[in-house]
Design a protein that fits this description.
The protein has 3 helices and 11 strands. It is an alpha+beta fold and 158 residues long. The chain has a domain of 83 residues: Crystallins (Gamma-B Crystallin, domain 1), CATH 2.60.20.10. The chain has a 7-stranded antiparallel β-sheet with strand order 1-2-3-5-4-7-10. The chain has a 4-stranded antiparallel β-sheet with strand order 6-11-8-9, with no helix packed on it. A hairpin with a 2-residue loop joins strand 1 and strand 2. The N and C termini lie far apart (71 Å).
Length: 158
Amino acid sequence: MLALVPLVTPAEASAATPSITPMQEQVEDVIDEHGGVQTGWNEVTWDDGAIILTIAREDSIKAGTISARAATASAARDNCAAGKYCAYGKAGYGGNKLTYSSCPATHTSFSIIGSPRSIKNNRTSGTVKAYNGSTLKNTLTAGKGNSNTSGITKITCA
């Protein structure tokens, strides 16, 4: 009986361990599906850098919603570059991030990150508006963000 325990335990452990996709494979999957150019170990860009996808480290992406404490900690380290506006796949400015630099613009393609859960306008002037269909969900003035929203289907800037 003791001889069977080592044989059973590793099989059970490997069945319970989720498969982890390496970052390079994720980058290549994005390029295969959406085009773009790899510009960093976890980054794909389009339109000569006007749109940048930053893929979050897998260990920072958790299934389900994040806690209020995690959202606060994440908001404190928000990293939307100056002069840009960003859409994040998770609340609290977490998960995969799309960074936009061109304005005026309307963006409706978020399939890479899913429906954005938080947005940030890190420009020195102008507004970013988030919509669900034609319903206005948020208006962000320069330097402002919303760390927890849902149902965003369109982002515009002016």
